[in-house]
Amino acid sequence: MTSIHHFKIKGIGGETIDFAQFEGKKILIVNTASECGFTSQYQQLQELHDHAKENLVIVGCPANNFGGQEPGSNQEIQQFCELKYGVNFPLTEKISAKGDDQHPIYQWLTQKSLNGVADNEVKWNFHKFLINESGHLIDSFPSNVGPLDNQILNQVQ
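^ thats the sequence. predicted structure below, dont judge the formating
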């Protein structure tokens, strides 16, 4: 079983996000969208980031897989997140969270044969995956479970 720490991804500003740098912290990976009914979860994600950043890293992955709700460019997405929600946790470049062009990180998150824990299906924007300090999948939460829900808080504190 591989860990998430083997992955690198391009950040929204062109930098490389190396998941190895997050070893020793939990990671919450979320596929995000700017025009979704769940978009206000950016605010809760930022609150969680501010509250738990010593032990938790949040990584937002903008994706346009559901209802065309993330149509913007990387620059437009970054500007929206910073101006509207004050987001300062890491955001990746726009990726695909499902389908034939699914990003390798999402292949790992959704396939038990790769993550060693569970098969998961990303059914909508703001699906959350929780990774432990060793880089292994702990749990996954559907869109309707907010970032400040006790199901998540109990596992990250």
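The radius of gyration is 14 Å.
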